[in-house]
Amino acid sequence: MSSSVSNIDLFSYGVMTPALAFVMSVLGSLIGLLMAARARSVGSVSRLWWLAGAAFAIGGTGVWVMHFVAMLGVKVTGTPIRYDVGLTILSAGVAILAVGAGLASVFLGRGPAALVGGGLVAGLGVAGMQQLGFAAMNMSAEVSHNPVILGISVLIAVAAATMALRSALRVRGALATLGAALVVGLALTVMHYVGMFSMSVEPLENRVPLTGAQVDFLLPLMVGVGLLTIGLLLAVFLSPSSHELREEAELEAMIESRRSRNSDWLN
């Protein structure tokens, strides 16, 4: 979509970038929810590791990779776009830490207050990641945002984060988890494009020198995050499920009970 007012085209490659962004968001959300399900089955240090993996999958792939895959399709009339590498990397850290804080809130807290608070923290973090992503864009242009539309995107981010956290706590079963991931992924992708629609760009008559990297530098970063996320998926498949852990605990209890009875009989 291009605009003579904003001079910005969000879909320069057609539906390819939004479709791929949606797929990445669903994939990250799905793996994150699967890891959160593992976290529900274990305790102490193991739970923290699973929650950290869930934060990386949702925040890193579901949010950050989705955002910058979508940005691959953004073109601005009259100016190239360069990206500040430091801000771009910082935006990934913000997304992961915010989702991690939200997960910690709902897993350590109790009741609706923990969910609302966690959703607010994670959602504002996701919106902050998007704003850092926007700030990382260097253009020979004046950039402004419609505050109403931008505010709507923040509300969608909070709603999407709250849905993700609620699903991390309660959703069980393959189909239910996939359905939740589809809803969360769609909400996050919509949030991104609503935020982009708030942006207006007016190229400057006198171009200024641009600093930063071309969008191509994002590709190895996104591939790296994607590979790490796939590694997390393999960890989920290779680790014992809650059902298997329960069976193992029952077996150990049965063995211990028999040992105790044999010991009593010998004595």
Compact description:
This protein is mainly alpha-helical.
Describe it for me?
The chain is 74% helix and 7% strand. The longest helix has 28 residues. The protein starts with 7 loop residues before the first strand and ends with a helix. With 267 residues, it is mainly alpha-helical. It has a two-stranded antiparallel ribbon. The chain has 8 helices and 6 strands; from the N terminus they run βααββααββααβαα. The chain has one domain.
Shape: elongated
Count of strand segments: 6
What helical percentage do the residues reach? over 70%
| Major β-sheet profile | 2 strands, antiparallel
Keywords:
two-stranded antiparallel ribbon, mainly alpha, disordered N terminus, 267 residues, 6 strands, two-stranded antiparallel sheet, 7% strand
Secondary-structure topology with pairs:
Blueprint: E1 8-9, H1 16-41, H2 44-71, E2 75-76, E3 82-83, H3 85-108, H4 111-135, E4 137-138, E5 141-145, H5 147-170, H6 174-197, E6 199-203, H7 218-238, H8 242-266
Antiparallel strand pairs: 1-2, 3-4, 5-6
Helix pairs in contact: 1-2, 1-5, 1-6, 1-7, 2-3, 2-4, 2-6, 2-7, 3-4, 3-5, 4-5, 5-6
